[in-house]
Amino acid sequence: MQENPTITAAEIARLAGVGRAAVSNWRKRHPDFPAPVGGTTASPEFDLIQVEQWLRTQGKLPELAAADRLWRHLAAASDSPAAGLAAVGAFLLARQRGSRSGHPDAQLAPLLPDVDALADELGPQGAFDELWQRFSAPGPGRPFATPDDLADLMIGLASVGGGSVLDPAAGSGAILRAAVRAGSTSVYGQELDEDLARLAGLWLALHDVPGEVSAGDSLRADAFAGRAVDAVVCHPPFGATNWGDDELGHDPRWIVGTTPRTEPELAWAQHALAHLRVGGHAVLLMPPTVASRRAGKRIRGELLRRGHLRAVIALPPGVAAPHGVPLHLWVLRRAATDAPPPARALLIDAAGGDLTDTAPRMLAAWRAFAAAPDGDVEEAGFARAVPVIELLDEEVDLTPARRQPAVVGEASGEHLVRTRERLAAIVGELPALLPQVTPAPDGPEGLFLTVGELAKTGALQLIGPVRAGTSTPAPDGTPVLTVQDVLAGVEASGRVDDRFGQEIPLAVGDVVVPVIARQLTARVVTTEGALLGRNLYLLRPNPAALDAWFLAGQLRTSANEKQASSLSGTLRFDIRRAQVRRLSLDEQRTHGDAFRRLEVFETAVREAAVLGAELVQLAADGLARGVLRPDADI
Q1: Is residue 612 within 8 Å of residue 585, measured between CB atoms?
Q2: What's the pLDDT score for residue 165?
Q3: Which residues lie closer than 8 Å to 312 by C-beta, 6 or more apart?
Q4: N or C: less crowded end of the chain, CB within 10 Å?
C-alpha cells in the first residue's frame, strides 16, 4: 500500500463532477492548486488528500457518505483494491475479536481513524460490508463477480439447504455468500488470486461462517482433495489454454474419462463431480459452446450415460460476463455406480427472457423434473425432459434451443391480428400523451440545490439504501419494491427474505432511485403497501416544499447522471450529489405534471416496442411454417 494515495486529472474531474477541461483550467488559474506528486508530464498524479482539501476550500467537493470517502482513499492508496480491502478487513476482524494486534500493514495508519469511525457506527462486520459493496461495483480493474441474482439461482438449483458447499473458483466469494444466504452450514472455496481468496475468507470470518477459502489452482493443486460435500457451485474461468492437461492426464478426478486439452470447462465439471457425495448436486456456469463442441462429445456422452448430467439451462444474455453471450448452467448429480441411469435429461431454453422473470420458472421446472426424473416434463418453447437416447446421437449436442419442440399455434392469424390492433391503438395515442413544451425565452435559468442540501433544509428526507441483514419478518405476502421493478416501471414484485435487513414502508409520493443501474432512474411511488427493497435510495419530499413528480423528473437528467455517478464509473450513483432546480411550488407542480406525462409516454413507447417485436416474430414464424400467407392484394 502506498504512503500517500494519488489521483489522476481524470479522476479529479469525476470527483468534482466536471469535465477534464475544468481541471486543466483550475491548474492554470489557481496558483494554490496542488502540484503533481508523481506520474508523467502527460498524465500527472496528485495527492488525493491535498486535492480534496483544495476542492473543499473552493466549494467544489460534493458531500460524500463516510463509506464512500473511505473507499475512495483506500482504492487510491492501493495498487490492488482487493489487497487494500483485505488489509482493512484484517484490521476489522482483529477489532471484532477484541484485538488490535491484527494490524496487517503499517502504511494503513492514515486511514485507521476513518475505519474506526465507520466501525463505531456500523460495527466491524457492517463496515466491511459497506466497503465490500463499493469494491463489488463494476469499475476499471475490478474482477467480474457473479451477480447475486445469478448466484442465488445457482444455489437454488443445487438444493443446498443446510448442507456443505464448495466453490473451487471462488473469486471474491459471491457464490459462497449466496450459499450462506440459503442456509448452508459450512462453505469452502479455492481461488487462484491470493487477494480475492483472502477477501472471501475474511467475509466468512467476519460473519462467523464455518468454512475455509484457500489460495491456489484448483485443477493443479486441489486444496480439498478427498473432501466430499453436499453441493459444488462454480463459475469457472472460460477458455483457459494452459489448465494443466499435460500433467493431469490420468488424474483420478476424471471419473468419466480423460478431459481433452481444448475442453477445460469439462475438466471443471469432472472436478466438481469428484467432490460430491453420492446424490449431491453441482451447478456450473458454462459458455454455450461446451454443449456442442466436437472435442467434448465423448465426455458429454459419458456424463449422460452414467446419469451424472441432469440438466442444461440456457440463460438470457447479459446475466454475467461476458455479457453479450447467453451462458448456460449445467446441473450435475453424483450418481451411484450401481444405480440405473435416468432415462431423461432436462433442457431449458430461457435465453429469450429476463432472469428476474424466468428464474422462478427455471427453478419450478427443475424441481418438478428432479421429483420425477423419468416423467414427461414439457413446456412448449421453454423446457423439455428429453430422452437420453435421443441426445446420444452423432453430435451429442445439448444446446437447449435445438431440442425444443416448435410452439404450435402461436403464429395464428387471429393472434397476429390482435397484436397488430393493440400496437396500432398504442401508436395512435402517442401524440396526445407527449406533453406540449416550448423553448424558454431567456434560455436556461434558475439556481440549483443538491439533494444533500435539500435534505439539510428539510425539503426532503433521504432514507436507505436498505442494508442486508436479519430483521423481524414482515407479514407474509408483503411485497418489496426491487431495483428491477423500478427500472421496468412496474409494481413491487419482491418478497422479504433472510437477507432483508430493514423494513421501510413506502408511501404515495415517495421517490425511489436505484444505487446501481445502467442509467440514473427515478420513479414516483403511486400505491401504498410495499417495502423499500435493497440497493434503492428513498427520497421522501416534504409536500409543502417539493413536488414529487418535479423531483423525480429533475433527478433523471443526463447532467445528474454525470454529476451523481461515482468515481469508479457511471453505474453507481450517489444521489446526494444530484442537483434540483430551485422553483416555486406552483412552478414545480406545472413541471411535475409534464414529467408525469413524459413517464406515461415512455411506458407507452416501451410497450409499443415490445408489441412491435412480437408482431415481427409472429409474422415471420407464421410465414415460414405456412400458417400465414402473403395477401396478394397488397
Answers
A1: no
A2: 96
A3: 291, 328, 329, 330, 331, 345, 346, 347, 348, 398, 399, 400
A4: C
Task: Count Cβ atoms within 10 A of the Cβ of residue 209 and give its class: 0-12 exposed, 13-18 middle, 19 or more buried.
Answer: middle
Neighbouring CB atoms inside 10 A of 368's CB total: 15
Identify the residue with better confidence: 385 or 87: 385
| C-alpha cell at position 153 | 439461482
Distance of alpha carbon 86 from its chain centroid, rounded? 22
What φ, ψ does residue 349 adopt, rounded to 5°? -110, 95
pTM over 0.90: no
HSE-up (13 A, CA, CB side) for residue 584: 2
CATH code at 148-339: 3.40.50.150
CB-based contacts of 210-216 (< 8 A; 24+ apart in sequence): 210/185, 210/186, 211/176, 211/186, 211/187, 212/188, 213/170, 213/173, 213/176, 213/188, 213/189, 214/189, 214/190, 215/190, 215/191, 216/190, 216/191, 216/192
What is the spatial distance between Cα 506 and Cα 322, in angstroms, rounded to a whole number? 36
The yes-or-no verdict on residue 332 having pLDDT over 90 is: yes
The C-alpha cell at 338 is 450401481
HEC readout, 183-236:
CCCEEEEEECCHHHHHHHHHHHHHCCCCEEEEECCCCCCCCCCCCCEEEEEECC
Provide the residue type at 580 as one letter.
V
Please, where in the chain does CATH 3.40.50.150 lie?
148-339
| pLDDT band at residue 624 under the 50/70/90 scheme | confident
Q: Averaged over 616-627, what is the pLDDT?
A: 80
Q: Are 219 and 271 in contact (CB under 8 A)?
A: yes
| 37 vs 445: which has the higher pLDDT | 37
Rounded Cα distance, 134 and 336, in Å: 44
- As beta bridge partners, residue 349 has 314
Distance CA 9, CA 55 (A): 13
C-alpha cell at 403: 431440442
pLDDT higher than 70, residue 499: no
SS3 assignment for 300-367: HHHHHHCCCEEEEEECCCCCCCCCCCCCEEEEEECCCCCCCCCCEEEEEECCCCCHHHHHHHHHHHHH
Instruction: Indicate where the chain has its CATH 3.90.220.20 domain(s).
Output: 448-581
Is the preceding omega at residue 387 within 30 degrees of 0, hence cis? no
